Amino acid sequence: MAGIYIHIPFCKQKCHYCNFYTVISQKYRDGFVPAILKELEQRKDYLEEKNIHTVYFGGGTPSVLSVKEIGQIIDKIDQLFHLKEDAEITLEANPDDLDINKLRELKSETRINRLSMGVQSFDDKDLQYLNRVHTGTQALKSIENALAEGFNNMTIDLIYGIPTLTNAQWKKNLDTFFNFGLPHLSSYALTVEPKTVLNTLIAKNKMQAVREDQTVQHFEILLEKTRQRDFVHYEISNFAKEGFYSKHNSIYWLGGHYLGIGPSAHSFNGISRQWNVANMKQYVEFEKTGTTVLEKEILTKDQQFNEYVMTSIRTSWGCDVEHIRNVFGPDYESYLRKNILPFVDDGRAQQKGNIFRLTDKGKLHADGIASALFKG
Question: In b/e form, how buried is each residue of 340-365, taking b as 16+ CB within 10 angstroms?
Fold first, then answer.
């Protein structure tokens, strides 16, 4: 499968924990969608005539775009690529952007068939800590309205490990999600990234620090409650009912090819990786100025191996040593077997046939385990 990712960097305000490329200024807003359409035209050959199975509007806050603009971008993709009739087309959205009228227009006037709503918490104390724009009440209402308008294929984001989030409230957040009957949940541990507002505020003792023991407790609660509801933990941060896995994100995790459009967006076609400049002015004016908006690297064999290990080890499908042998050769298979053995011995990984997977204990250390398995 192949997919297209559209990065919409505009936000009403910057969340304290966010380290993605986003902009609050609307200075280049008018020229942004025309630049997206122009880049799609220029990059139409990157995926080499592959059918497009997914389109994902991410951000930032893609729901700040008008319904007309969203439709223009989808129409342009349909003109330039082989967009499958049943393609999964996802829009990330903030609850405060999704009133009943916008939801109705999205349903009737675009091909958006999946929503990813950035709820993060249903408790206002947590939302204030994170510096989110919406309230818990708005989140509840937006989900109700989306379901009423027929957006049944919907996921929400919930963050755990927030210092203001008690175990009881975390359980309540999860129960609220389950009570809506939604088929998919993305749940992330709050991570304090360098150069974020949250990192600065914690360093100045103006915000409570994130505690590892609290994060571990929340993760254990998450695993227990999703299993009770028969959700499949198919990727470190993603849980779904059978048949409702994110097709777009699965392209990333299963080594598929994808084209990234927009400032800071990344692309991958198996042998090369490309990424766009994280600069709105340069991106919007690239056609007029003739400046280059992307950088590219050809992946070495070691890098391709590392890419496979990094993505596969995070999933329920696991890391397949037979695939490694067939694609990279027996030396790489031996290398993986040797280096993953300590994690099997200490209970953070397990082997079943040719597949190595992380245990619940190992999932807490996925990034560290992956980096320990890298070659080169």
Answer: beebeeeebbeeeeebbbbeeebbbe
Task: Identify the structural domains of the chain with CATH numbers, from first to last.
Answer: 2-252 (3.20.20.70), 300-376 (1.10.10.920)
The pLDDT tens digits for 174-191 are 999 999 999 999 999 999
Instruction: Give dist(CA 330, CA 217) in Å, integer.
Output: 40
Q: Which of 112, 207, 189 is nearest to 150 (CA)?
A: 112
The string of DSSP letters for 104-171 reads: HHHHHHS---EEEEEEE-SSHHHHHHHT-SS-HHHHHHHHHHHHHTT--SEEEEEEE--TT--HHHHH
8 Å CB contact between 276 and 293: yes
Q: pLDDT, tens digit, for every residue of 79-104?
A: 999 999 999 999 999 999 999 999 99
CB atoms within 10 A of CB 325: 16
Cα–Cα distances (Å) from 212 to 6, 41, 152, 258, in that order, read 34, 46, 35, 34
Would you say the C-alpha torsion 189, 180, 149, 125 has a positive or negative sign? negative
Type of residue at 173:
N
What is the per-residue DSSP string for 224-236? HHHHHTT-EEEET
DSSP states of 75-108? HHHHHHSEEEEEEEEEEEE-GGG--HHHHHHHHH
CB 175 within 8 A of CB 167: no
Distance CA 337, CA 334 (A): 5
Backbone dihedral region for residue 347 (phi beyond 0: left; psi -120 to 50: alpha; all else: beta): left
Q: Which residue has the tokens 């080499």?
A: 48
**Both tokens of residue 135?**
């309230």
For residue 197, give the 3-state DSSP assignment.
Answer: helix
Q: Give the C-alpha separation, 352 to 357, whole Å.
A: 8
Alpha-carbon distance values, 94 to 162, 315, 370 (Å):
19, 27, 32
Q: What is this structure's pTM?
A: 0.95
Residue 332: CB atoms within 10 Å: 20
* CA gyration radius, the chain: 21
